[in-house]
Amino acid sequence: MIIHTPAIVIRTIDYRESSKIVTLFTQTQGKVAVIVKGIKKSNSNFSGLLEIGNILDIVMYYKESRSVQNLTKASYKAKTYDIRVNLEKMAISTATLEMIDQLVMDNLENEAFYKFTENFLIWLHETKHSPRKLFPYIQLRLAEIMGIALCYESTDDSGTDNYLNIEEGIVSNHQSSGLSYKLTFGQVNYIKQGLGPQKGLVIKSDLSMQEIKNLIYHLDVYMKHHIDGLKDRRSDKIFYQILN
User: What is the mean pLDDT of the chain?
Assistant: First the structure.
């Protein structure tokens, strides 16, 4: 069967001398691995196209019984080149795509995840703002799409202590009997904005980078508690260097 679909490059590995196996997040077939023969040759039609974070229109021969499909054509659907020349953008896009790679299932359409990923990459390419403080918002959105959205139930985010209660998935003035993390005023306000109608304000957050790192850690623990098999990101070493 010939499939024509938009697709996002989320992972590549070398295969033999001149080829690569590329993991694509497609709009119609979910996550699909394709083999791209001869891509390392100077005259390859795919040269420069199959870079992580690129948004493409592709044509592939798709067969359900195969674990790796044959890619036949590809062209740009949207440009995201600024991500690869901006270290902060590259770091956050790599961490985001690594999470999405773990969350999205092979060969299963997921329109909500695909639209979020495509819109995020286009926005990241176009924005003039620094994205250094954006990753906790990405975690909140991914949790929402996975059906484990945090619930904000705090009645006072300034005068009393606030906690992220991991098992219940609630930000509250009350600490549960299970695992919980005490949050700073800035972290509570960030979560409140990230879950509310003023999402755009999170990128202008006045949180310190240490508060951002701690919030990322807390939200990672939350997601790992509720999603089986979610692993540490391999890209975090570079990502945290950018956040310093």
Answer: 91
